[in-house]
UniProtKB/TrEMBL annotation:
<dbReference type="InterPro" id="IPR036960">
    <property type="entry name" value="T-box_sf"/>
</dbReference>
<feature type="region of interest" description="Disordered">
    <location>
        <begin position="22"/>
        <end position="84"/>
    </location>
</feature>
<keyword id="KW-0805">Transcription regulation</keyword>
<dbReference type="InterPro" id="IPR046360">
    <property type="entry name" value="T-box_DNA-bd"/>
</dbReference>
<dbReference type="Pfam" id="PF16176">
    <property type="entry name" value="T-box_assoc"/>
</dbReference>
<dbReference type="GO" id="GO:0000981">
    <property type="term" value="F:DNA-binding transcription factor activity, RNA polymerase II-specific"/>
</dbReference>
<keyword id="KW-0238">DNA-binding</keyword>
<dbReference type="InterPro" id="IPR032385">
    <property type="entry name" value="T-box_assoc"/>
</dbReference>
<feature type="compositionally biased region" description="Low complexity">
    <location>
        <begin position="600"/>
        <end position="610"/>
    </location>
</feature>
<feature type="domain" description="T-box">
    <location>
        <begin position="226"/>
        <end position="411"/>
    </location>
</feature>
<protein>
    <recommendedName>
        <fullName>T-box domain-containing protein</fullName>
    </recommendedName>
</protein>
<feature type="compositionally biased region" description="Low complexity">
    <location>
        <begin position="22"/>
        <end position="34"/>
    </location>
</feature>
<dbReference type="InterPro" id="IPR018186">
    <property type="entry name" value="TF_T-box_CS"/>
</dbReference>
<dbReference type="GO" id="GO:0002302">
    <property type="term" value="P:CD8-positive, alpha-beta T cell differentiation involved in immune response"/>
</dbReference>
<feature type="compositionally biased region" description="Pro residues">
    <location>
        <begin position="573"/>
        <end position="582"/>
    </location>
</feature>
<dbReference type="GO" id="GO:0045893">
    <property type="term" value="P:positive regulation of DNA-templated transcription"/>
</dbReference>
<dbReference type="Pfam" id="PF00907">
    <property type="entry name" value="T-box"/>
</dbReference>
Amino acid sequence: MQLENILPSSSINLPKTFYNLSSSDSANNSPGSSQIEYQEVERTESESTTAPKKYLSGAGMMGDGEGDSFSGTKTAPDGRKGSPVLGVGVGVGVGVGGVGEDDLTSGRRYNIDDLGSDRYFISSSSQAGSDMANPCSLFPYAGQTGSVYGASNGSRYSASLHYGSVLPPAGFSSSVCSSRSQFASGGYQFGQGPGCLYPSYPATGSSIGSMSLPGSAAGARAQVYLCNRPLWLKFHRHQTEMIITKQGRRMFPFLSFNITGLNLTAHYNVFVEVILADPNHWRFQGGKWVTCGKADNNMQGNKMYVHPESPNTGAHWMRQEISFGKLKLTNNKGANNNNTQMIVLQSLHKYQPRLHIVEVTEEGVEDMSNEAKTQTFTFPENQFIAVTAYQNTDITQLKIDHNPFAKGFRDNYDSMYTAPESDRLTPSPTDSPRSHQIVPGARYAMQPFFQDQFVNQLPQNRFYASERAVPQTNSLLSPQSEDAANAAAAAAAATQRWFVTPVQQTGSNKLDLSYENDYSAGGLLSYGIKPLPLQTSHHALGYYPDSAFASMAAGWGTRSTYQRKVTTGLPWSPRPSPPAFPPEEQLQAGAPPKDKLPEESGAPPSASSSNWIETSHSLKSVDSTDSGVYSMVCKRRRMSPGGSSTENSPSIKCEDLTTDEYNKDNPKGMGYYAFYTSP
DNA sequence: CTTTTCACAGTCGCGCGGATGGGA
DNA sequence: TCCCATCCGCGCGACTGTGAAAAG
């Protein structure tokens, strides 16, 4: 197959044979078994933070509920169970945990989160035993919510895409598995039944890439970081919804990745594929999403979006953030004839985006002689339900709060900068509403995009104060239920399945590693994510100049002082970026490694924070009313005055920051990334 | 009744063209 | 005076969610 053929039309003709898994495999892997394995994994996770040894079964999360997971054991029918390959294939893609014991040795993937959608593996160097000492990365694996549903017709992309060769199940083809047939015979679990051709979270393949076998031509250990993961998590907790229109609607949050571990000179095609996440048709009822019948598996249309810069060298891809901000979703099956690539989806179906990295020739042609050059990455938090109109007002509000294009719907937008300084949450040193800096020093400059994508956390304060423990909530909790949720949150937090290294546990408080800490100052510091060298000045995304974070990260040295000064509760407060500085440096800089934001530490929030909390409750109260009333009352709900402004002030103040400025010292804000990695 | 489509108002970025300033 | 580079303002198009109407 020539991947170039899909550019720009995205029309791909790929052999489907790789997905032609036998139904017997499916039968052999019942959802039930998956479930069991999953539970076992969870227990293990909660039990130990130091000896994550039980991730053998690939089954895991993916299969949870949906049963389309496959067990690690079966993944390696060829007796390679436990091999790095196995672990990869299973672990990553499926999320499942499909990391074999051996994998633990070589691959080191620790499931550190118990929240289905927010599981992380803290990976470390490949050296055995170094995991604890060198926790260098966090990468989510496909959680239970991330299971990918295979079309019953046996060909997920029968309509427009036959990319089997490009996207071998689980990226499996990647170096990890020398033979795709291994997977086929290996027996993926297809909980969906006979028709399911796709194992859950093939994405795992990503790691696969990293776990390539010795001597493998595709030995590149690719690591993919979800740059704006915090934002995705915000939406994910309420079940992300994505509008689809005939003309095509951009995703928000959009997919944005950082890639490392590629061969600098090799050429790659990078593209996103959106596949059904489950076999259900969904509807928003009673303030929450419920399944309603079976999904239409026969939906035709393009499901892939090739990054416009493809093909390009590994150096190119790694030099900058790979954003898919211009990716559009549509429900128009006839779309895609124009210049813009659009992914055709079906309303009220749940989808899972996946990132594929395919090594190609300089001309963009895939080397068919080597199947181990495809790597696939899946982030469960990227799941979303396609809708033609927003259903959950929480999602709507999040969109308005974070999407620069929706600024016009922020009621308090005009008053954001007219409020008295004392009322302002924005600690801008200047009175200029359009100041480029949110704090003295260019290092704190932030761009709108960046702020929105990475820094903004106000919504949580306002609406989801206690939802940290409610990963999949629809945010319709009543005040009472929210209290219950709070209690549950504590319990849940206590059982968070984070595998932490000694460093991570310095705080002696596991709660620090809870759900949102991955992008909080304290939480991030613990992980010691390695920084990525970013010097690019190029950004594919025009409207969303993904920047600013770098400069911000560059200023962590003084950040701590700043944070204390302006209160940590500020929604836009720059969070420390572990990658930017090694923990030691942060300490030297005077930044408390574990200082937490109010909502995280439970410390008394600032006055403004209190206001937010109250607002939150009041809002929740409204929200919690019966579904019938709910939708009406929540229409165009607004947050407390100044809330948005605070949240967005950075964007406005920094909107003029140039991309170059950002890139020059952009550490890539790794602290905000979730990533798949290969040991 | 649910879902989809459409027009709308608002914001934003980009590109074009004119104005301005400096140098030859 | 001419040429060139830079700056600024305006208009256009892209993009957003809203809300009503249409469609199923």
